[in-house]
């Protein structure tokens, strides 16, 4: 019996460090991120594990989306027309030039024995620029309509223009190897310079096609897949509310940052500033002034401040946020100081000083 007790104690002693080691090696999820719900796994499996993703709903009017899509459509049609024209011209030009280079007599061959150096120079310069133009046209511009046809055109052909569209942005080459760096906090440079600017309310207000930039591209196949899942009732549009998706490795899997969820917390002062009563008063006053759109823009801006800066809000951050709010009100023709004096001031707001 004593031997059994000693053996059990020894086993427990040996098991202790192993358990601690297991906890230490267990996958960690970055702050603000949680594991994605099981329902979204059917969507996430179609995403690349080497990239970050930003998802949100584009609720811009259908007519605005249509108007914005016209410009790249016209531009790509012009490029296609120029390429076809150059191919047509080249069919009759390049064979003769190649034949002349091989020593055959034809209309494009230059007789150096009878031609002046001035004439020869002009012909050489013209042909050089022709070759250069055609090369750049094929090497640089031909991929544009190809990508446009296989991406945006196919996207619009299948989806059309809808009142609410799911926008999926994927990170570009800067994210290579970054998504697997899972720790208790996400790399601050990535968060501050890449993700936070991309989820600013002024960005999320734009229609999807205007969100393509050097850091983020649209994943058209993912957007079509998302709508397919919604159309088949596998998911809801609400599942694609503003969020950031990241793959944290085989053990962690996909994790999600629900952007709007962060605005629900905060200090009591923040909750007081954004209380329902005050929101109701502010909205009622702006509606009476014919400025309801300003109310929604202001709410989005406040949510952005709470989502991204609430925990480390410095005096400089407060001044910057307050300046953005002032500019927002000014752009809508509302006198900032007078308005807030009438609704009870800025006390308790995260941007107050």
UniProtKB/TrEMBL annotation:
This is Uncharacterized protein. Residues 1-10 have a biased composition (Basic residues). It comes from Polytolypa hystricis (strain UAMH7299). Keywords: Membrane, Transmembrane, Transmembrane helix. Residues 1-30 are annotated as: Disordered. It comes from the Eukaryota. The chain crosses the membrane at residues 68-88, 129-149. The keyword Membrane applies.
